[in-house]
User: Fold oleoyl-[acyl-carrier-protein] hydrolase from Emberiza fucata.
Amino acid sequence: MEKLVACVQKKPDAVCRLICFPWAGSGTSQLAQWGRLFNDSIEVFCIRLPGRETRLEEPFAKDMTSVVNEITSVLLKELKEKPFAFFGHSFGTYMSFAVALHLKKKYGLEPVHLFMSAAHAPNSAAYLAVKSIVLPDGHNDLLAIMEILGGNFELPHDEDLWRDTALTFKEDAKLFQTCSFEKTDMNIPFSCDITYFCGSDDKIYDAKGWRELTSGDTSFYELPGDHLYLLKPSNESFLIKHMTRSIENGL
Assistant:
């Protein structure tokens, strides 16, 4: 559990858990801190993939199926125990959606709310186009791929940090390309509400397809900023308040 999940503030009396799925090339350092910002009714778990942080010595995951299987097997007891919601940003959106589909299909479990951010809807042509991009070997070409897959954001200037980020990003991009959302899966819509967020200065994402993936309500919010708009304190505050209200209303 501690290997897969970062939880900076345990809240045994919480009525719901928010499971956060970070963006490509990153770890748990940002989203896990949300655990201190939500009130006591919501406990925050942040997913940590192999190849980073305390799992640095582990090989990177090779396919999304193995990631989904690890997350569901480790968290199944917790997910059955009390209501849960998902937040995914960029690459994390696809990972969270893959986990949600698996939970629905295999265990009949469903989040009380799906919060998706800065990503194409997985039933869109734009998603399929990004998925089929050929990943390059060189660092300079990788920069272009990071901008295509990751949107508009400032990259680290420190050379060692850039190299580590680039390596992790490339492995996460390979992982993303193993995502497979079959049409049969898409015929099993969710009943929970879906909220989609994006940055005003980021590239345009095809997000409208989320409406077809649930019988619940869908809503869309554009916040000021680039691909990592969610790191701005004012946006972070908006997200926390909005997600708290949405989760509590959905219980």
